[in-house]
Amino acid sequence: MREFKLSTSRRDEFVDITGSVREAVAGSGVADGVCHVFVPHTTAAVTINEGADPAVTLDIIRKLDKTFPWSDGYTHAEGNSAAHLKTSLIGSSETILVEDGDLVLGTWQAVYFCEFDGPRTRKFLVGVGEIRMGDLR
Question: What does the pLDDT look like over 31-48, one tens digit per residue?
Answer without folding.
Answer: 999 999 999 999 999 999
